[in-house]
Amino acid sequence: MSVKKTIKQKICILGLGYIGLPTASVLASSGFQVLGVDCKHTLVDTINRGLVHIHEPGLHTLVQAAVHSGNLVARFEPEPADVFLIAVPTPLRKEGDRVEVDLGNVEAAVKAVTPHLQKGNLVILESTSPPGTLEDLVAPLLEQGGLKAGSDFYAAYCPERVLPGRTMKELIENNRIIGGYDPASARKAEALYRHFVEGEIILTDARTAEMVKLAENIYRDVNVALANELSTICEKLGINAWEMIRLANLHPRVHLHQPGPGVGGHCISVDPWFVISRYPDESRMLSLARRINDERPVIVAELVVRLLEGIPDPVVTLMGVAYKGNIDDTRESPALRVLDELRGRGITCRIYDPHVLALSEETNNLAAAFSSSDCALLLADHDEFRYLYPRELGKIMRRRVVVDTRSCLERALWEEHGFTYHLLALGLERDCR
Ligand SMILES: NC(=O)c1ccc[n+]([C@@H]2O[C@H](COP(=O)([O-])OP(=O)(O)OC[C@H]3O[C@@H](n4cnc5c(N)ncnc54)[C@H](O)[C@@H]3O)[C@@H](O)[C@H]2O)c1
Fold first, then answer.
1. How distant, in Å, are the alpha carbons of 298, 305, 413 from that of 343?
2. Is ligand 1 within 6 A of the CB of residue 165?
3. Atom 3 in ligand 1: which residue has the minimum CA distance?
4. Distance CA 26, CA 24 (A)
5. pLDDT tens digit sequence for 81-129
6. Which among 139, 314, 370, 402 is most buried, taking Cβ atoms within 10 Å?
7. Which helix or strand (DSSP H or E) is residue 35 part of?
8. Can you give the C-alpha Rg of the chain in angstroms?
9. Percentage of residues in the chain with pLDDT exceeding 90?
10. CA of 89 to the centre of ligand 1 (A)
11. How close is the Cα of 35 to the center of ligand 1, in Å?
12. For the segment 350-400, what is each residue's pLDDT rounded down to a tens digit?
């Protein structure tokens, strides 16, 4: 294919986090000259030594190879390039009940690119953004450099949909939506992604692509809220919600999600606000879903408090504080909200999370976390937890109580070793089989 011959183009990637660094390493290993830019000094040093600051299977090997080959270099400032790709954070700003999207990082990154922009360049926004951001914010800021979007330079919004923990695989295999500032921009961006994307690439306009990304995460947030609400109703009815959902999903056109301790992460719990904050009157279902999912950590904490009633100076061991299983990411984690709730009620908490080592070195110390504990509370379904030995844990814990908020543990095994097993959203089971 002729596109493959444009190799050694220079690509400048702004933001070397969970999205930017994997993308930089994949592009560098496809033969591009990649300049990674980040404002964090320690991170730039780490990457230039061939190391990584985030845990993502396969990432370290690729970054190491890219840096050693000379195709990936990290710096603090952008330089002239053929393509600029922006993957900086787009967090929320909360003031009381007011929630707004903070596009300050996107603005700063675009302003840093503008002086280097040349005719024929392509600028890609990958940061999740409210609909209209490419047209109304990014392109006008770039045009302040004197070039015109659509005629002098190309611009596109290309949302990222990777699943943390599978990023390196999904970057390549997932289907891609590309929203162009104009059709020529979309085709230009498509040519770049074709170098490493094996999934389908679908072209549209920027505003639609921006909304597609948000709609995907809104769909998931609303469906988790539905599962959580059904599970509360099931509890009142004395029905096992997990079993009810399993049976309902046998219907060929039903796909209920799973209940749990809440929704976290950088995307699903955040992205609905990109729409709610701008269209509050039209986002009634979105707001309600957010509220239902946000209440879950309090429901979990209240369950634990009830179970520990009457125990003097109770100690709880939180198993997993990442926002979901097998990752090290604690952003917006419901587990951290459970932690706050329990501590706020005077309960001593310890953390056992073999993936999240950034909080403290102690989080990987199983004996210290479980010793003299009154309750093991599973909040993230890390694979390691399935292979724990309840017999050994029972010996060092003060009480054999386990609460499973993810339906992750093998109940019979824990009960066999004297544990009282509590599954979130489990009513009084009726065995009619
Ligand atoms: N993490 C995911 O799984 C995921 C998935 C889809 C979309 N997204 C979106 O991608 C974007 C990036 O997310 P992330 O998870 O990679 O964030 P991140 O926090 O892991 O990384 C962002 C990096 O950008 C750097 N940065 C901030 N401002 C900068 C600037 N002006 N110039 C250069 N660097 C700057 C930060 O120092 C940080 O290292 C967000 O909009 C997010 O919503 C993330």
1. 12, 11, 30
2. no
3. 164
4. 6
5. 999 999 999 999 988 878 899 999 999 999 999 999 999 999 999 999 9
6. 402
7. strand 33-37
8. 24
9. 90
10. 4
11. 16
12. 999 999 876 665 677 899 999 999 999 999 999 999 999 999 999 999 999
